[in-house]
Amino acid sequence: MEQGVLLSEPEEAAALYRGLSRQPALSAACLGPEVTTQYGGQYRTVHTEWTQRDLERMENIRFCRQYLVFHDGDSVVFAGPAGNSVETRGELLSRESPSGSMKAVLRKAGGTGPGEEKQFLEVWEKNRKLKSFNLSALEKHGPVYEDDCFGCLSWSHSETHLLYVAERKRPKAESFFQTKALDVSASDDEIARLKKPDQAIKGDQFVFYEDWGENMVSKSIPVLCVLDVESGNISVLEGVPENVSPGQAFWAPGDAGVVFVGWWHEPFRLGIRFCTNRRSALYYVDLIGGKCELLSDDSLAVSSPRLSPDQCRIVYLQYPSLIPHHQCSQLCLYDWYTKVTSVVVDVVPRQLGENFSGIYCSLLPLGCWSADSQRVVFDSAQRSRQDLFAVDTQVGTVTSLTAGGSGGSWKLLTIDRDLMVAQFSTPSLPPTLKVGFLPSAGKEQSVLWVSLEEAEPIPDIHWGIRVLQPPPEQENVQYAGLDFEAILLQPCNPPDKTQVPMVVMPHGGPHSSFVTAWMLFPAMLCKMGFAVLLVNYRGSTGFGQDSILSLPGNVGHQDVKDVQFAVEQVLQEGTLWMQAMWPLWVVPHGGFISCHLIGQHTPQVPALPSSTSYSHGALCVVEAGFPFSSDCLPDLSVWAEMLDKSPIKYIPQVKTPLLLMLGQEDRRVPFKQGMEYYRALKTRNVPVRLLLYPKSTHALSEVEVESDSFMNAVLWLRTHLGS
Fold first, then answer.
1. CATH 3.40.50.1820 intervals, the chain
2. Using an 8 Å Cβ cutoff, are 508 and 586 in contact?
3. What proportions of the chain, in percent to the nearest 5, are helix, strand and coil?
4. I need a labelling partner for 65 at 20 to 30 A (CA). Which of 32, 163, 451, 572 fits?
5. Taking a C-beta distance cutoff of 8 angstroms, is the pair 112, 59 a contact?
6. For 21, what's the count of Cα atoms within 13 Å in the CB-facing half-sphere?
7. CA-closest candidate to residue 548, choices 563, 558, 533
8. CATH assignment of 94-172+209-347, given 1.10.8.60, 1.20.1250.20, 2.130.10.120, 3.40.50.1000?
9. Degrees to nearest 5, angle at CA 230 with 224 and 234
10. How far apart, in whole angstroms, are the C-alpha atoms of residue 693 and residue 211?
């Protein structure tokens, strides 16, 4: 291999990383109220929130920027930014009131040590802070949930109360031998007060509180809380069933109660992040009588209920199987007044031609309804793209809003009064912010998009999608005829056009997918002279439910063969050179496949998985092809089959130089599994290096860890390529 494709000085790679990592990412957007000027023109403000890596501070910073959108009712006349970006420090959640006259902000302040950080709930009006409540000092509950699994911040329709989710206040605990000075002058009433139930419980300071896993380590027992904005009183709602944990709550029509999703937590909690299959249901709790009513099937899983503007209907996602951790979902509609539930969009077993392949989003946008409360807009993976869709809830028709475009991917941030705010990006174009009005029914494909914030394309990156059909001997007998895809990025002007090294990256999950959107690492590698192959093997989302169901029981075989077949097919195009198989995977199944590949196919090139196996017992058992039950242990035959599917089985064949990157706080894949793999290679004198990040979690996404792991990967390739 000629030196100069990748093997430039590390300082050059660091400079390239510093430049590309400055590209910001959109995280949220909301629309302000309609304003009519003195000349009759109409405009709305668009408030956006972004995140960006800051390598000097080694943290992800958050900032906001506002835009003005002038329109004539059904089309944008003019749009542009209103001022510069402003960093928002400490904001955890924020939500505009229904009229747009007020804004609620959950903010953290104080130190970073245990017990030093405080949470404040602020109410802003026009140009002033109207109210500020020190939630930590009030001691009504524990920390407020700001995550997107349970967390919410919802205004009542009357704009007098705020609803949110927080950790239940835990009783104080102390040692059996804790002593306190006795005040001999205390009255009988004071002595009785000291004996009240809220005093510390002896011997409970080491009681175990089970949490909800990865990225949810401090979250165990959520409760619904209501703040009276005028009086400052906080009440913890009663009536929630003891066997479920509430979240994703909002005010019911008329503010008489609260609608929420309740997740089963008995007999124990399992990790909930990226697991839409957790058993859950939709509930309504009446604020007056405290009665709780079940609104959906309680044997399935549900997510993201959204109330229509006319307050008559609720749409939500429903997952019909509790087996795959993520899958194709149904879109269900609950009529508030008739109490009737209907399935608007059903699960799609298999995509037919260019038809809709199903809904695969884990959450609907907070704003997803059309102004007339008839249509719902959302984004979803469709094979290797992500498109926007409008669903007519009356007849169930699904129409793409972005089909036939340039092939990139879309994400809906919000829609309000038919004005949509969306993000568009491609593998060579960082996120661009766009607005457009939802056309009338039947004309959805004629959206006129206007850019609010244009991103500069990254030059010299060419990309495309390869459709792949497995050979007959690799067909899945139960789910025959499935195809899969891979996204190929190539440098436009490599130093040696006859030999372009290729990096191979299957995704993790296993039930997730790559889409044709902006990704930092593939863009970095392409700019350094590599081609990058992103493989959506059978079992990926976006290809129909049959594809997802084809993988459990076939992990370690079907997925590995798909990746190898994709590599072989792309190499037959004649312009690429398989000198570097580099699976850079930050979720479990990618590392699982990488270790299978270097064991089953023994490429003499460096590999860089960031994890090597699974964590949740349920996920291990299910993907191995067995039913999961919380009340029994797998027998010897199950253990034997799981060992047969494990990459550690192929340790004796591994010759590939391996760089392992593990997070010591990983709750999804125990890092000690990677340590075992590392030691097994060390005993066989296979070149192996281990990076163990003590405070990092599963994704290795902290700015310091992410940047360090990438640069170490570059050095690893520099050391071993061509050796």
1. 459-579, 581-618+629-722
2. yes
3. 15, 35, 50
4. 163
5. no
6. 24
7. 558
8. 2.130.10.120
9. 25
10. 22
Closest CA to 536 of 679, 386, 690, 366: 386
CA distances from 317 to 277, 364, 378, 457 (A): 11, 8, 11, 35
- Residue 75: helix, strand or coil by DSSP? coil
> Within a 10 A sphere around the Cβ of 49, how many other Cβ atoms?
17
Q: In angstroms, what is the C-alpha Rg of the chain?
A: 27
Token pair in block for residue 389:
């869709």
Examine the pLDDT at 1 and tell me if it is beyond 50: no
Report which of residues 614 and 406 the model is more confident about: 406
Query: Above 90 in pLDDT, residue 723?
Result: no
* Residue 268 contacts residue 210 (beta carbons within 8 Å): yes
Higher pLDDT, 180 or 424: 424
Residues 6 or more apart whose Cβ sits within 8 Å of residue 709: 610, 661, 691, 693, 700
CA distance 377 to 365: 8
| DSSP state at residue 456 | P
Tell me how far apart the terminal alpha carbons of the chain are, to the nearest angstrom. 10
- In 133-272, where does DSSP find H-type helix? 135-138, 188-194
* Residue ranges matching CATH 2.130.10.120 in the chain: 94-172+209-347
Two tokens, residue 465: 């999608």
pLDDT at position 625: 82
Residue, of 134 and 587, whose pLDDT is higher = 134
Spatial distance between the Cα atoms of 321 and 716, rounded to a whole number of angstroms: 42
Cis omega before residue 267 (within 30°)? yes
List pLDDT tens digits, range 37-50. 888 889 999 999 99
Q: Is the CATH number 3.40.50.1820 carried by domain 459-579?
A: yes
For the chain, what's the residue count?
Answer: 723
Span 201-250, pLDDT tens digits: 999 999 999 999 999 988 999 999 999 999 999 999 999 999 999 999 99
Residue 662 phi/psi, 5-degree rounding, is -130, 145
Q: Which of 32, 158, 169 is nearest to 94 (CA)?
A: 32
Q: Angle between the 10-20 and 520-527 helix axes, to the nearest 10 degrees?
A: 140
Distance (Å, rounded) from C-alpha 639 to C-alpha 645? 10
Rounded CA gap, 33 and 101, in Å? Answer: 8
* Residue 12 burial class via C-beta count within 10 angstroms: exposed 0-12, middle 13-18, buried 19 and up: exposed
Angstrom distance (rounded) from CA 603 to CA 39: 70
Whether pLDDT at 185 is above 80: no
Which one-letter DSSP state was computed for residue 417? T
Going from the C-alpha of 659 to that of each of 77, 204, 605, 628, 681, the distances in angstroms are: 54, 43, 11, 33, 11
Q: How far is 579 from 604, CA to CA, in rounded Å?
A: 8
pTM exceeding the 0.85 threshold for the entire prediction: yes
What gap in Å lies between CA 123 and CA 133, rounded to an integer?
Answer: 9
Structure tokens at 413: 């941030």
Number of H-type helices and E-type strands within the chain:
11, 38
- CA atoms of 223 and 140, how far apart (whole Å): 11
Task: Please report which residue ranges of 217-289 form alpha helices under DSSP H.
Answer: none
Mean pLDDT of 277-298: 95
Q: Hey, what are 477's tokens?
A: 């007998």
CATH class of 581-618+629-722: alpha beta
Task: Identify any residues that bridge with 501 across adjacent strands, giving them in sequence order.
Answer: 577
Q: What is the 3-state secondary structure (H, E, C) of 304-353?
A: EEEECCCCCEEEEEEECCCCCCCCCEEEEEEECCCCCEEEEECCCCCCCC
Q: Are 294 and 283 within 8 A, CB to CB?
A: yes
CA 612 to CA 660: how far, in whole Å? 9
What are the structure tokens assigned to 241, written together? 């069933």
